[in-house]
UniProtKB/TrEMBL annotation:
Organism per entry: Pectinatus cerevisiiphilus
Keywords recorded for this protein, A-Z: Membrane, Transmembrane, Transmembrane helix
TM region(s), chain numbering: 35-58, 398-418
GO cellular component: plasma membrane
Protein name according to UniProt: Uncharacterized membrane-anchored protein YjiN (DUF445 family)
Pfam families: DUF445
């Protein structure tokens, strides 16, 4: 059911006044009744004309087909005009560039990323990605290529004698050797097993070294009268040896220094011997064997891959990578903050991405607008457009009646003056 608006009511009032003014003019002829009728006629004609014009935009008023229902007939042109309006006015290149510049997007992006939670998440993601990639590496192919490369570029050109001598003479290696020796000794002599081993050594010494004579007699008498007890001797020796091994762990102790001096002397004597060069040549020859080198590399890669397993969350490799990536991320943010050139490059990159994305949205928005308008029926399109400008259309129609009435008065006065 049609709802009368102010324009309809104005036109209805003008029609009613015309119906009243016409018989009054006929019954009471005169200048005032004639002027009133002339004014009402002009207002009625103006209102009807504007009603027809406004209605012709959306439909065919009174069924007249000529130059009516403009919007449905020019629908395609209206759609293209709407698309051009959106693209050129809202997504114009100049407007987009000015808007992107005013956003200060680079600072916002850096501030958003410079967050402990996000940096930790990024570190975890990058670490997992690297470990996954490492786990997917074909170890056989890598080992083959790496062994060939090392043979050709490292092993053959390496002065093994000099390198081995320099490495063996380093204090770090000697300290590690002494500590490993202490660990080995402590492992062998600790506990009841250690006591038994020491006791067996004493018994062996007794049976091998003291076979006859007075020494043998004294040892036999000592054992008989329980003066010499091998088990007690073993416990005493174990106690003393454990004290010595504890001192071996302390790099400042005299025992450690003495052992290090012994190791140093042994190394120097070994290097000075003639068969040292033969040993080095044999070592280099073994290393040049690609099969041997390949096995070593494969074993190393297999060890790395085990640490790349997602279930090994506490693996040493994962922790090293996480720490390394976390430090690098902090360094990156520090550089972005403090280095003006880097900051400018980042700002240019982010702004360029935003500009390109916004400009790319021109065609995307155009497609969206075209699809939306094409999916609408003529009635839906008319309703949408009419709802946006309904108030203005009502005033246009009202103005038609008002202006028509005003012009009618002016024309009547002008005609009376001419007469």
């Amino acid at each position: 059911m049609h709802k009368f608006n102010r324009a309809d009511k104005t036109l209805l009032v003008a029609a009613c006044l015309f119906l009243v003014a016409l018989p009054i003019r006929i019954k009471y002829p005169g200048i005032f009744t004639e002027a009133f009728l002339f004014c009402i006629e002009a207002a009625l004609v103006g209102g009807i004309a504007d009603w027809f014009a406004v209605s012709a935009l959306f439909r065919k008023p009174l069924g007249i087909p000529w130059h009516t229902a403009i919007l449905p007939k020019r629908r395609q042109a209206f759609t293209e005009a709407t698309i051009r309006l959106v693209q050129r006015q809202f997504f114009a290149k100049k407007i987009v560039f000015q808007r992107v510049k005013s956003l200060n997007a680079s600072e916002k992006v850096i501030c958003w990323l410079d967050n402990d939670t996000r940096k930790q998440l990024f570190t975890e993601k990058v670490t997992s990605m690297l470990l996954t990639k490492i786990a997917q590496i074909d170890s056989t192919v890598i080992a083959e290529k790496l062994s060939v490369y090392l043979n050709e570029n490292v092993i053959k050109t390496l002065d093994m004698k000099k390198w081995c001598a320099e490495y063996l003479e380093t204090d770090k290696w000697k300290t590690a050797l002494v500590k490993n020796l202490a660990i080995f000794i402590k492992g062998r002599i600790s506990g009841e097993t250690g006591v038994e081993d020491i006791k067996k050594l004493l018994e062996h010494f007794e049976s091998e070294k003291i076979k006859q004579g007075a020494s043998s007699l004294l040892m036999s008498l000592g054992g008989f009268f329980d003066v010499i007890n091998n088990e007690e001797c073993a416990l005493l020796i174990q106690k003393k040896l454990l004290i010595l091994t504890d001192q071996l762990f302390d790099s400042q102790s005299q025992v450690h220094k003495d052992m290090a001096a012994i190791v140093d002397k042994a190394i120097k004597e070994t290097i000075a011997e003639n068969n040292w060069q033969e040993l080095i040549n044999l070592l280099q020859k073994k290393l040049l064997d690609s099969g041997m080198l390949k096995k070593i590399i494969l074993g190393y890669l297999s060890s790395i891959k085990k640490q790349c397993d997602n279930s090994a969350q506490d693996s040493e490799l994962r922790q090293v990578l996480k720490n390394f990536i976390a430090v690098e991320i902090e360094d990156c943010f520090s550089i972005m903050r403090n280095n003006k050139e880097i900051y400018k490059l980042i700002e240019t990159l982010i702004n360029d991405i935003l500009r390109r994305s916004a400009l790319q949205a021109q065609s995307m928005v155009g497609d969206i607008v075209r699809r939306a308008l094409n999916n609408m029926s003529d009635e839906q399109l008319n309703t949408i457009v009419h709802s946006k400008i309904n108030t203005d259309l009502i005033w246009i129609r009202m103005n038609g009646s008002i202006v028509g009435g005003g012009i009618g008065i002016l024309l009547f006065i002008f005609m009376r003056v001419i007469r």
